[in-house]
Amino acid sequence: MSQRDMSGGNTHDTAEPSASTDEPDAEEYSRRGFMETAGAMGAAGATAGLAGCVGGDDTEGTGEGDFLWWTMRGYIQSEEQALRDTAAEFENWSDEEVNLTTEVITWDQVFESWASAIQGQNTPNVSEMANEHAVDYGSRGVVRPNTELFNEYDDWYDTPSYWGNYDGEVWGFPWFVEVRNFYANTDILEDAGHDSIPETWEELVDTATDVESETDKTGFVSAGSQSTGTGQVLYGAAVQAGGEFYGYEDDQWTVELDSPTSLFAHLWMASMQEEWEIGPGGWAGMDGTDAEQLYREGEAAFMINSGDAANNMIDEGDAVADSTSLELIPEGPMGTNTAFMGGSCLSAFESDFTQHNVEDGLSMSFIEYMTSPDTMEGYYPDATPNFLPVREAQEELPPFTENPTDIPDEWIQNRLDQASDSARYGITGPQRNAPFLGDLEGTTDAYSVAISGILGANHDPKEALVDLANDVRSTISESDAVDYELEQSDEQPSLDDAPDELQDWIDGSDGTPQIWDPYE
């Protein structure tokens, strides 16, 4: 078996516990109808809590040259301060007079804040957001395209290179990506008789099965509830099995959520509980935070989760950090290690909506400043390892070339390697964006509706997928962004039509663990 050698393990000095709180996943950004909310709010609500914002230099806006930007980076104290300090230097970097204010808005508040600020023409000049929302706002004339700035670079990673593409423009400037990570507890593996880390799906299932039989620990954990993290893990599995949730052909979107490959991915994930019995009890009620807690308590051998768990283990001095190996996602049937890609972009609001009236070029200048490698050196070490590059030139930044953090070198290197092999639902398959994608992410809890029902409520997998796919088709058809209607489908997918590379898993051939098939 081609597994990685674990000899030596990870050693590092643990940091003192930080004052940070657990950050909700950066992808939990989609909220149904957040644009419609703007129309329902009065201008008075727009100014609530936003007047007199304090900037990175602890000064309030003075009038001429005032510039406001919003970031959601307020969950890790050192990261927030590094961003504030770096952003404040824009005042000296710019050729124009600038009085910069950094305002931190949490993800659970920013949707209402955006909506009310738009209604009151009181938005920041630049805001962190997802490109799905940059495209939606852009199609409604609220944010500006940044195509010219984007085209100055030609070394983008694949998914960021088309993350903001819509209607011939690029909306939102990719700022960073973050990826789902594969965590392995080497102490538990040794107790189960293994001295190497699984590199493939087959090895993962076999090793986790041994953990269940030889120890009192859980073999594998991830989010399993109807939640964002669950859908992200599921989508990663679908891509590794050669599938996508969307396609685009003949100038129309297609929905692939009820395809044979999607069925396989759902059954593969459900097999952790239904066939191989390597998932935790109550898995269908666990979100990413619950999964993290189980792993950090030393009760699970393997976990797929966001990077926050790694940061938290180091910051809080968890004993499990010393036995944790952070690796690439194990290779799937198509021979790839692809992981789900999260991340953020920076978007400039149109001056008709901004609180401070500045030249449009100043907003673009700020985005250019914050995303240049020289500037990023000021905050990347404190944002490690959640902030990962969006293009090749950024691979030369500390901490990738030199590591000033308490995080093990191999953790950082493996996450850097994973960054360029990552995919995003709604984006990677069609290789474009659309205004309705943010809404769909929210209404489906990141496409976790079907799998959570299968795991927790015994929903028929085929029926659950057809229902989910038809809901998505309806949403697209009702969108102002399309002038066609996607037909509803009553045809259920069949594993017989799945790609050849998946058949060993379906049949249990050649020593491959057989997936759960409730239709046999």
What does this structure look like?
The chain is an alpha/beta fold and 520 residues long. It has two domains: 35-178 and 341-419, D-Maltodextrin-Binding Protein, domain 2, CATH 3.40.190; 180-340 and 432-511, D-Maltodextrin-Binding Protein, domain 2 (3-Layer(aba) Sandwich). Helix content is 36%, strand content 13%. The chain contains 21 helices and 16 strands. It has helices at 34-40, 43-47, 77-88, 90-93, 107-119, 131-139, 147-150, 158-162, 186-191, 201-214, 228-240, 260-274, 288-296, 308-315, 360-371, 373-376, 409-419, 437-443, 449-457, 461-477, 503-507; strands at residues 4-5, 66-71, 99-104, 126-129, 165-166, 169-170, 173-179, 181-185, 196-197, 218-221, 246-249, 252-255, 300-305, 324-327, 339-348, 422-423. The strands form five sheets. Strands 2, 3, 4, 7, 15 and 16 form a six-stranded mixed beta sheet that branches. Strands 10-13-8-14 form a four-stranded mixed beta sheet, sandwiched between helices. It has a two-stranded antiparallel ribbon with strand order 1-9. Helix 11 (228-240) packs across helix 12 (260-274). The protein is globular.
What's the arrangement of secondary structure elements?
Layout: E1 4-5, H1 34-40, H2 43-47, E2 66-71, H3 77-88, H4 90-93, E3 99-104, H5 107-119, E4 126-129, H6 131-139, H7 147-150, H8 158-162, E5 165-166, E6 169-170, E7 173-179, E8 181-185, H9 186-191, E9 196-197, H10 201-214, E10 218-221, H11 228-240, E11 246-249, E12 252-255, H12 260-274, H13 288-296, E13 300-305, H14 308-315, E14 324-327, E15 339-348, H15 360-371, H16 373-376, H17 409-419, E16 422-423, H18 437-443, H19 449-457, H20 461-477, H21 503-507
Parallel strand pairs: 2-3, 2-4, 10-13, 15-16
Antiparallel strand pairs: 1-9, 4-15, 5-6, 7-15, 8-13, 8-14, 11-12
